[in-house]
Amino acid sequence: MGLFFPDYGTPFGKPRGQKLSFVAVAAGHAVLLSLIAAAVPAERLVDLTRPFTARLIELAPEVVPPPPPPSPPKQPPKKESSIRPMPLLVLNTPLPAPQATTFTVAPQPPAPVVALPIVVLPAVAPEAPIVAARFDADYLDNPKPAYPPASRRFGEEGKVLLRVRVSSEGRPEYVELKHTSGFPRLDQAAMDAVTRWRFVPARRGDEAIAAWVFVPITFNLQG
Questions:
Q1: CB 212 within 8 A of CB 163
Q2: CATH (one of 3.30.2420.10, 2.60.40.10, 1.10.10.10, 3.40.50.720) for 130-219
Q3: pLDDT digits (tens, 9 = 90+) for 176-214
Q4: How many angstroms separate the most distant Cα atoms in the chain?
């Protein structure tokens, strides 16, 4: 401020110094403007004083590229086999053609005839016929079945057929009712009597055997 604001050293001269400084500043600006007008053309001054507009340009958002795909796992290096294939040898020499051969088969001699021994089997004797068991022999002395009194009173009559298995000793082993008389009392009386009988056993030749025999018993009031 030393050029445009001189200090006079006394308080009484301060207002006057301020006025002089203001006048000096104004004169300096005027001189500066005249120099600018003389140095710069009028068209340039008009361009400098024209208003200008400013546009804000929005920057495009930064595009982030997608991450690269993961790389495939590394395959372990294949071990080369130490065994190498044997080279094939190709022979260009043609193979000889097969020679035709002829052969004959000598006739075979006839087979010798072997005489087989004749075996004579012994004659089998025919099986002896079976003679059925008997219950009507006189010496057996088999009692007749008892006529039930109730059957006599009610007039019950009929014929009972029994099937009896006779042992080789002539004893009845099983007694079965083959045909009923129609009255249970008469059937039971016949079975009770035959169970106590004796029989002539069946025979095959001279051998006594067990066999079945049918025994008919008739209940008749008039008889």
A1: yes
A2: 3.30.2420.10
A3: 999 999 999 999 999 999 999 999 999 998 899 999 999
A4: 203
